[in-house]
């Protein structure tokens, strides 16, 4: 199930097991806007209206604007990418996403030379997202990438999984997928993309800077202060499922390690 | 006869063994659910969490016995030993799931206990429960006398440790564990000596 076997450019991909079932992927989610329980998103996300949908793209771009979903998707090459998603909570899943490279969208709107970072924002509608009544995070959820991370060919905007429309609990209609970073970096249900020259604030970093850094690259050698990141549990293995070792950059090191050359990843966690 | 006296009279006729029997079942039931897909796609954490919550809930029930008697004169004190032992059983099962199904790796277990404050706190709580479970029999009560009462006041720090453990293991400040902590803090606050001075009935007149 290497990435090279599917449409699109070939990548040196980690050895992934069988993809998780559609049921696994859509019933065990972290999407705190719908509640902090793993089953809450599947239970409550149905209320989210994803049509019509627009994405505000602004900041240091040539063609800023409020882009309708159809305009965002126009000309995009939707391909399948089978990635492992490694959650910061030390579990992982293998997910066959459908989507397009974020790079293609950024090229479409034109990145100004002074841009260094990309900031993202999730939709926040209290009447449709019951978790927003809880102050567990400072809403709306925001995330960010360095521009070179955002332009990396592995960085995907997902629009579906298993060839089906992206379910709401997985971040419909548009979500980021950055496979070498902990899952919370892959922001869901994006309504705003801003190019900027400053490192943008990110939700979990704002909530607890000691535990969640801006980079949040998967790294078995840098533990979360409250648990080890050396191993992970692959979801779907049942009550007696064994743990497996976590790989540096979630196994995508050949592709992305160069982005961090010379950086102290213990400091820049 | 007051309503409380009627209830107490009825409670006195109830046998205690069914509490042990019924109380023993939930962990077995969860295990069965875990084997058959009833605990979702990640049954290990779910099993572990349900046992931990069950232990906290039973601990809250244990702590509620005295305030309930003070407020309503209804006394569940006959059942408190069984409730305490069930708490120990649930938390021991919670720990066993963590050790054998969740962490699995021996080297990591000790590292977690020493390095992770929420696990350290949970472990201290569990260790403090052991002497209480051991001295829960009548012989110990007789032999230890006044010291027994003193020893069993350990349940207060144990409850706080349990609640703090729950608050700390969640990502961010979540409502559910904070409610448990608030409930336990309230039940402990009801025992503060200062309340006796303002008229809170710590030692109600004996019921006939």
From TrEMBL, chain B:
<keyword id="KW-0812">Transmembrane</keyword>
<protein>
    <recommendedName>
        <fullName>Protein-methionine-sulfoxide reductase heme-binding subunit MsrQ</fullName>
    </recommendedName>
</protein>
<keyword id="KW-1133">Transmembrane helix</keyword>
<keyword id="KW-0349">Heme</keyword>
<feature type="transmembrane region" description="Helical">
    <location>
        <begin position="154"/>
        <end position="172"/>
    </location>
</feature>
<feature type="domain" description="Ferric oxidoreductase">
    <location>
        <begin position="51"/>
        <end position="162"/>
    </location>
</feature>
<comment type="similarity">
    <text>Belongs to the MsrQ family.</text>
</comment>
<keyword id="KW-0288">FMN</keyword>
<dbReference type="GO" id="GO:0046872">
    <property type="term" value="F:metal ion binding"/>
</dbReference>
<dbReference type="GO" id="GO:0005886">
    <property type="term" value="C:plasma membrane"/>
</dbReference>
<dbReference type="GO" id="GO:0020037">
    <property type="term" value="F:heme binding"/>
</dbReference>
<keyword id="KW-0472">Membrane</keyword>
<feature type="transmembrane region" description="Helical">
    <location>
        <begin position="52"/>
        <end position="68"/>
    </location>
</feature>
<dbReference type="GO" id="GO:0030091">
    <property type="term" value="P:protein repair"/>
</dbReference>
<feature type="transmembrane region" description="Helical">
    <location>
        <begin position="117"/>
        <end position="134"/>
    </location>
</feature>
<keyword id="KW-0479">Metal-binding</keyword>
<feature type="transmembrane region" description="Helical">
    <location>
        <begin position="14"/>
        <end position="32"/>
    </location>
</feature>
<feature type="transmembrane region" description="Helical">
    <location>
        <begin position="178"/>
        <end position="194"/>
    </location>
</feature>
<dbReference type="GO" id="GO:0009055">
    <property type="term" value="F:electron transfer activity"/>
</dbReference>
<keyword id="KW-0285">Flavoprotein</keyword>
<comment type="subunit">
    <text>Heterodimer of a catalytic subunit (MsrP) and a heme-binding subunit (MsrQ).</text>
</comment>
<keyword id="KW-1003">Cell membrane</keyword>
<comment type="function">
    <text>Part of the MsrPQ system that repairs oxidized periplasmic proteins containing methionine sulfoxide residues (Met-O), using respiratory chain electrons. Thus protects these proteins from oxidative-stress damage caused by reactive species of oxygen and chlorine generated by the host defense mechanisms. MsrPQ is essential for the maintenance of envelope integrity under bleach stress, rescuing a wide series of structurally unrelated periplasmic proteins from methionine oxidation.</text>
</comment>
<keyword id="KW-0408">Iron</keyword>
<keyword id="KW-0249">Electron transport</keyword>
<dbReference type="GO" id="GO:0010181">
    <property type="term" value="F:FMN binding"/>
</dbReference>
<keyword id="KW-0813">Transport</keyword>
<dbReference type="InterPro" id="IPR022837">
    <property type="entry name" value="MsrQ-like"/>
</dbReference>
<dbReference type="GO" id="GO:0016679">
    <property type="term" value="F:oxidoreductase activity, acting on diphenols and related substances as donors"/>
</dbReference>
<feature type="transmembrane region" description="Helical">
    <location>
        <begin position="88"/>
        <end position="111"/>
    </location>
</feature>
<dbReference type="Pfam" id="PF01794">
    <property type="entry name" value="Ferric_reduct"/>
</dbReference>
<dbReference type="InterPro" id="IPR013130">
    <property type="entry name" value="Fe3_Rdtase_TM_dom"/>
</dbReference>
